[in-house]
Amino acid sequence: MNFLERLYGIFFQPVGTIKEIVREKPIWQAVVVIIVTGLLTVTSNYRFTMVGTDFFTSSSGMPDVGRLRALFVPMAVFGSIFIAPLTYFVYAAVYHFLAEILEGKMYAKVEDNVSFDQIEENNAEIEQKASGEKEEVVIGTAKGLYSAIGFAKLPMIFMVVVNLFVRLLNSRAGLILTYLFLAIFTVWVIVLEIIAIKENYKMSTGNAVLVYFLPYIVLVVLFIIMIMFAGATFISIFSEVLKNVPMQ
């Protein structure tokens, strides 16, 4: 597949296209998708580009935050070009580690007389590299995962159309429509990323879902523990204060 075929395939043949992506590992094409999608999505957002939005106007007794307008677009551009690709690098590293813990397939070797279809049937497919008289089939690579989850971000490009359309609506309706479609496209991206994990490591759907959500589960658990610790500390301090209050 070439670049345009992969873009088309993500929308209309996602599973087959992701299988091809994790095999071929077009990592720089994935970086282009991440950067371009982020740039177009953020810069088309009316909150960053429209003149006269409440967020950028000053009010009585408040500093002129309208002067910050010049900073937001460069910050968004910098984030889309540099921060977003690095963030996906972290995602791929974390998911790769978790997939290995959950026994995702990392590599396999087969003789060169084994057909690609047979390899796929045995769940040992992905990239084939000639090596003497043998073919080395490499699966479950972090590079393949990065490429796949990079392309999985592509549905967010439709937020450009949404962002342009909401300019025609009032602020309340525009905000509701924006968050509605943002939720829809986010779910779409999550499904594609889970498919990427599943196909890259030849895992079951359940394990792929667990790998995807485990970091978020850990963060939620840590947050709850911190809240409980902070609450216990506050109660302890409050109790000590009450003890020292003179009783009349």
Automatic annotation (TrEMBL):
<feature type="transmembrane region" description="Helical">
    <location>
        <begin position="173"/>
        <end position="197"/>
    </location>
</feature>
<feature type="transmembrane region" description="Helical">
    <location>
        <begin position="209"/>
        <end position="238"/>
    </location>
</feature>
<keyword id="KW-0472">Membrane</keyword>
<feature type="transmembrane region" description="Helical">
    <location>
        <begin position="70"/>
        <end position="98"/>
    </location>
</feature>
<protein>
    <submittedName>
        <fullName>Yip1 domain protein</fullName>
    </submittedName>
</protein>
<feature type="transmembrane region" description="Helical">
    <location>
        <begin position="27"/>
        <end position="49"/>
    </location>
</feature>
<feature type="domain" description="Yip1">
    <location>
        <begin position="9"/>
        <end position="225"/>
    </location>
</feature>
<feature type="transmembrane region" description="Helical">
    <location>
        <begin position="145"/>
        <end position="166"/>
    </location>
</feature>
<dbReference type="InterPro" id="IPR006977">
    <property type="entry name" value="Yip1_dom"/>
</dbReference>
<dbReference type="Pfam" id="PF04893">
    <property type="entry name" value="Yip1"/>
</dbReference>
<dbReference type="GO" id="GO:0016020">
    <property type="term" value="C:membrane"/>
</dbReference>
<keyword id="KW-0812">Transmembrane</keyword>
<keyword id="KW-1133">Transmembrane helix</keyword>
